[in-house]
Amino acid sequence: MEAMVVQMHQSGAAPRVILNHLKETRVILKASDVHNIVQKANLEALCGKTHTEALMLYLKDKHITATVAVDQDNHVRYLFWQPDLSKDFSCCYYDVLVIDCMYKTNAYNPPSYTL
Known about the structure:
This protein is an alpha+beta fold. It contains six helices and two strands; from the N terminus they run ααααββαα. A hairpin with a 5-residue loop joins strand 1 and strand 2.
């Protein structure tokens, strides 16, 4: 049953959809049970690492250069990443630079990236 909950969650099913499906199969769980199963699976997937550490390993595995800066409380201030292919293009075509740094600027009001 736990494996089914995890698989449905990984497939993108919302907790209410998982609960409804389980009710149809006569398995009775509460929303908190589904939440706990999903949280446990997420922690196991991280293999004891923080989310940031897991992300940095993922980026390294995908050949993406990344730099992360943290503040004194160890909160991420910024994360800059660049696929290695883009880095190669930058070396070949150094007179062209394209930066997309406007994601959700209204929601979080971050400082703009300036050159």
